[in-house]
Amino acid sequence: MSVAEIFDVVASSTNDIRGSLAGRRTYAEAENPSGEQQLAADVYADQLLEERLLAIDSVGAYASEERDDVVTSGDGYSVAVDPLDGSSNVKSNNAMGTIVGVYDAEFPAGGRDIVAAAYVLYGPLTTMMTAHDGTVTEYVVEAGARKPVRKDVTLPDEPVVYGFGGRVPEWPDDFSAFASSVEQELKLRYGGAMIADVNQVMTYGGVFAYPALQSHPEGKLRLSFEGAPIGYIVETAGGRSSDGTRSLLDVTPTALHQRVPVHVGNAEYIDRLEETLNG
Ligand code: F6P
Ligand code: MN
Questions:
Q1: Residue 156 in domain
Q2: C-alpha distances out from residue 210 to 18, 46, 60, 141, 243, Å
Q3: Which residues sit with their C-beta closer than 6 Å to ligand 1?
Q4: Which atom of ligand 1 is nearest to the CA of 226?
Q5: Model-level pTM greater than 0.90?
């Protein structure tokens, strides 16, 4: 019941978040805790979701990629949010998302404490993918209400697409070797917003990665706000996730904003990635 309420609040906020974009394509004055420039749209979505999610009785803590510290309001789930994933796409008017991880533990909590996760994709349609109780469901969100369009979503058996982030010369040699083999088999789909790129994998099957980079061995994406919730959704849909060695759900965070290399998709590709990286 309470997880459904969290999902409903996220769905009912999508109109406001989408509606806020047109007037908020400018940069705010601050940087987020990861040192990235914040857009006014990031700040707006963060404040909206903080207010609405903390108002739910069963939510006791709110953390987001856009603020340093956890905000608390009594007992309950700890909710981790990436309010506007891929927000630099607001300039070029390409897809963006919102990511929510529901943890039954205090922050910083690991993926094994996730009880539910969801993402919203602001594409031509607003869609939402939820994972809870072993099931993934895709919804279309209209006028703030979510209507299921695909139940028991699983990754397609015959993978079609891949998308890898980071500059190619920055990739470690073993990841480059993996990428070369994938390029022979799958079609490239990369749009610069993790949610949009992962949704391609959820729809067509394949593999998404933002790997470790030579200059940034910890990768770019954040464990609590991006890696673990997406790992939870992809694994619930029958796929695999990995930091290169282990499931993203088994990575223990020591800091709220820590980064992690992210690889998610059909099991055969994540198996091969781990063999290439560790073999
Ligand atoms: O949240 C970080 C993010 O915007 C992701 O959504 C996306 O996958 C990545 O950064 C894009 O990074 P780059 O611009 O290096 O491709
Ligand atoms: Mn993001």
A1: no
A2: 26, 24, 31, 28, 10
A3: 85-86, 165-166, 192-194, 210, 220-221
A4: 1
A5: yes
